[in-house]
Amino acid sequence: MDGSSETNEMQAELDSVEAELELVQLQITELLQKQAELTSRKNVLLERLGEACDSAQPSSSASSTESCGHVMSKQEMQHYDGTDFPWSKEVVWNLKELFKLSKFRPLQLRAINMTLSGKDLFLVMPTGRGKSLCYQLPAVCSKGFTLVITPLVSLMEDQIMYLQLINVPAAMLNASISKNNAKAVMAGITDPKSPFKLLYVTPEKIAKSKLLMSCLEKAYKAKLLSRIAVDEVHCCSQWGHDFRPDYKLLGILKRQFPKVPLLGLTATATSSVLKDCEKILCVQQPITLSASFNRTNLYYEVRIKDPDNEASICDIASLIKSRYQDQSGIVYVFSQKDAELVSSELQKRDILAYPYHANMDPDSKSRVHREWTANKIKVVVATVAFGMGIDKPDVRFVIHHTISKSIENYYQESGRAGRDDASADCIVFFGFSDIFRISTMVVMENVGQQKLLQMVDYCQNLDRCRRSLMAVHFDEVWDDEGCNQMCDTCCRVKDYSTVDITEHAKQVVQIMELAASMDEKLTPLKLVEAWMGKGPAKHRKTIKPTTLSRQQVEAVIVRMLLQGYLREDFSFTPYTTYFYMKLGRKAPLLKIQSHTLSMKMRITDGRSAVDTSDVKANEQDIDITFDPIVMKNGCLPQPRQKVFKEQRNQSRKQGLKPVSQTGKWREKAKKHLTDGHREEEEHQRGCIEVEVEVNIIDNTGVSDDGKAPSHQIKYCSKRKSATTQRVRRKACANVAALDISPTTPGGPAPALTVSSSPSQASIISDTAVKELCDLRNYYSKQLRRINYMSHEHLEQPTEPGVLACIREPLRSLWLPRRVTIGRMARSLWTRVSGRRKLVHDNIIV
Ligand SMILES: Nc1ncnc2c1ncn2[C@H]1C[C@H](O)[C@@H](COP(=O)(O)OP(=O)(O)OP(=O)(O)O)O1
């Protein structure tokens, strides 16, 4: 054997050893993960066991549970549940006579006694459990007034209306009140007779009004400022889901008024978010009281959504008509367009439903809200804009037409049901394509993808009670027994069986590998189709079509995604986000003989199956909703009308050629390029020409949580082409001047017009130069700010050191939304590199 073949053999063996090592490493990681899960479960159980023993022996000593910052024994805690405080009689009297409530809910009395004792407190209580009472009642029992910081004017108005109704004097200061009114309120702050017991202000007011701060200073000196309540306190922290920059400046309150007790209230805050809030608000070792998030009166259920949008709305309509006749409810949808569509479809089916979304004028919004509250409207079909401040006690159902983007969001939204403690239902319609629809929207968020997958897991996981899956997100354990058959998984436990899906998963991996070998990327829909024996034959070759139903196919793919055998792959252009499937980290494990993968599925007639109606629906020609997932500004193409399906089927029957071979294509390519779709075309090489309607929604148009990007195009038809590089060049050359004219968010006119065919004189257009200058100015401004603030922080004796000087300025630094800056940078890069390439290719010099 010569030297070189020996080297080759050694190299080959090394490769195989390395591959094996990689597999072993994966198995170790899996086992470690399992170990971590079991250990954390063990710890929780031990803690609960300890608690159970403690409560069985009340005299035994003390372990601190609910106190986070400040260590307080259990006995000490329980002491605050008593009614032997100097203020207790007044508190109980006011509860009954003023607030007309018969008794306190869990933790309310403890929180009230603690804040009346002058302690700083964080109160974490589920939405609708009565946090407001914990500062309203103490306000009435104290001298002077309580300052309440609230993020929304509508929330303030709601509270003031309610307080006026029960004869508690309250005032507010915000941009919507008249100058005279504001003057009177300012005077009231320092009035020893305290004309109001509660003063509601926005955080912006605290940050910007020097007059307010000086009035509060005087009130503090005169001992009239009895308490500070910070509602939605999680808004202080960037790690919370609803960060507001002005909340960051509220630390001034505790610095200026150190002796005034502070009460922070929130429905959603993890311990790390609270730690952050503690620092931002400058409170020293506050006590944290956390009420259980388990809403025992809510029944949780997940239903599989029909892929056909119309059919899915039909399902919702018949559900409402059969189960909730004449009852009040909410249907949450993904987009404003969905809100309009679903509400009008429900109306057609005699359901009194109205839409609610951020793009409606304020009058229409408040009319819908008012009439729904007064039971004149039965159902509100809403985006997430219908949120804070919704406090209708008798909401009997909350249906999600599309899954929420995280468990926390779902908990909040579904939590609007059953606030009167009577039973209510929370039902999600879980659709395969919705996962990717939302995925592309949250891709720019910090842990958006991770949170979405947790929500998907909630919908798909039949191993555990829905409640217990939700509890993990609130650092709680809700036993399956504790669910009391109040979720569909617990109710139908006998209908489920664990199925070995290893062989199915292997087939999926084969299809993915085949696609990779052809240098092709598969969208989720293409993967489903290929596995089911549909779509281009090259995607499956010798791989046998699966015998599973479409719904099972989707379930297996989702399972593989959740477990890391598959993963998402995004591809970005300045205008579009593309979504594909990729083999995940764990995929190689499926090559090991002994490795198995299983999941629970519903059993009917001895086989894991789905409703026959669903199978039927699946056997119909499916829509090409995301083929590939062409996202315009974070929004997926919407299902087309039947007419388009027919057109498409017809063209399929006729047999389609790659469009680059048709003369017609050139015309189209030219048109599309002139329409400014050049970047999209680049991503569509190797695709079959199909008609897809792309739903592009502008900044005001997607899902009302501000994630919508910028272009103001409503709808457009788009062609996915099999164009080649050569064709594109040619088309490009045919086009004399190519204008890309994006519109700025909310602005009607195109903000920029960049010639993509640079003249002899300018390699980079004026607009691009302007953009570069703007970007440079922006960064130099931020840099100046960092310098300035670093200097300021170095001079602060409380937080010395280099770390503080770096961390603090960065904390309060204003940055544009991630999406905006990402898009700006990408757009700029595309243009600059495009021009650089042109120069390089000697096209223009
Ligand atoms: N002890 C009680 N007994 C009966 N009802 C109560 C009690 N305390 C409060 N409520 C009612 C009053 C309201 O209608 C409802 C919700 O109270 P509220 O203070 O608005 O909740 P919250 O502030 O925790 O919710 P959100 O997080 O939505 O702001 O509960």
TrEMBL record:
SMART domains hit by this protein: DEXDc (SM00487), HELICc (SM00490)
Enzyme class, UniProt record, top EC level: isomerase
Gene Ontology terms: biological process: double-strand break repair via homologous recombination
Cofactor(s) needed: Zn(2+); Mg(2+); Mn(2+)
Skewed-composition ranges (Basic and acidic residues): 672-685
Compartments it resides in: Nucleus
Region annotated Disordered, chain positions: 645-685
Domain Helicase ATP-binding: 112-287
Hydrolase among keywords: yes
NCBIfam families noted in UniProt: recQ_fam (TIGR00614)
Name the UniProt record assigns to this protein: ATP-dependent DNA helicase
